[in-house]
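Quick one, T. Sequence first:
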Amino acid sequence: MKIKINNKLYSCEDDDTILSVCKRNGIRLPVLCAHPDLLPSEGVCRLCLVETNQNKGLVPSCAQKVAEGLEVLTETENVNKARKINLELLWADHAGKCAQCRKNGRCELQDLAREYNIDEFKFIPRRKELKSEDELDLLKDNWSHVAVDEKNASIARDSQYCIECRRCVRICRDMQKVEAYGFNYRSSKTNVGTPYEIPLDCIFCGQCSVVCPTAAITEKDDIGKFEKALADSNKMVIVQTAPSVRFTFSEEFGMPPGTFWEGKLVAALKALGVDKVFDTILGADLTIVEEATELIRRVKNKDVLPMFTSCCPSWVLYIEKYYPEFIPNLSSCKSPQQMLSPLIKTYYAQKEKFDPKSIISVSIMPCTSKKYEAARPEINASGHRDVDIVLTIRELARLLRKKKIDPSKLKDKKFDPALGISTGAGVLFGSSGGAMEAALRTAVEKITGEELGRLDFEVVRGEEGIRCAEIEINGLKLRVAVVHEIRNAKKLLEDLKSGKAHYDFIEVMACPNGCIGGGGQPIPANPKIRSARIKGIIARDKDMPIRKSHENPVVKNIYREFLGKPGGEKAEEMLHTKYTNRKK
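Structure tokens:
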């Protein structure tokens, strides 16, 4: 089928919308309710309006299906006038709030207001027309019901910035199947919020903050805590950085997605005054050694199978809240963040003769739910709070811009070596399938008792929502699956419950494409950007001198000097955890 857009013919498919055809062919239309990670929009923001020969009046291009003989005009006088009026209506509630906004300078609504030269506030009565400040307050009450929610460790909501685009509702409902958001009140007071305006109760994946075009939903801001720690001369600030962020940090400073900026990341943290910078990949390697040991034990002893990975805190929380019958299937291994952090305040502190009370342990993560995970009381094995502060990569970038530190102008620095040795297996943790491949590299050698040289399991790589494979090792067959996004995990769980599916080992990441699409990663994010990030990860793993977790020399030292053997008593105490049935 062909349709005509602005007097030119374009090919399209039956299920295309006008907007999808325009995007595919580089015809830009302003949008706020549409997003690449969401199902087709409901046309609520009314900014992508167009004229067609088959409709009376203007129609939203995101909701209008193509049809034979369709002719579309995207930039007529009527279209531009209507867009500007709709944009002015949305902008009216935001005018004057930008200076305090966390997304100031990086807000989609602000960008469009600037593009359309909106600097008048036609839809807000001037103060001189109001009789009193009380009348102004009453008017504001009639505009909307403002809800501010910061009663969790991960996500902050401020409905005064909400434009009711419904992206958060749709991402939570359609991708993550949690449905934490909906519509409250009626008529002109209708707004997006939680049921009965209760504090947010979800899995804290942060995908709502990724798709939110304004500052209505953001990550919980802990920059102030970090600055306070840096300013305290009696504290030693030790930072660990997650595997994926070295491939995304650069985007915050204008570099192409997937650009490897490990050295710049370390240098930027040192420029802020951080005392030591360690690599969370060491924690990932510990996770793999323990996880592979646990998997082998479960398979040989015919223990509870399939075993689920447990390094994604949103996935763990999803099981605890919605499918607690599968809690025994979760690996007892902590996440890489929570494996490395107790070692900082025990093993490292003892070696360097530091008082663990003087250490402030900070994590730079791709993930909002890592803030929640760090606050879980049952996984503080050091006798202190293992992780004191978690910053997303967006928070770190905001702080660097505030301090006027440009990482691109800094000379690369290396991680501090005591706990900063990386492997290719650990690097792979950044994307979906990486934890599975890393575990298989170690499990295969543990099972065979042989050093097998270069091991790649490309069968578990890819970007499909569910990927399945059968791995054969010395006659032992392992049925494995890799899943990302909760909607796909839910499907797999239902198949397991009904007996339709049978696996030995399953990796689940809550976010699209795994940590590389985490809720704390740079914005914008879409499939094309995430693909570029994944390519960076695969290329880095390929060039690493050590590509298996159990070959990491620092990991070997830690077991020899402190933990004993993998799966042993001390390792169990420091590196493993338990889970709680949170179903209501």
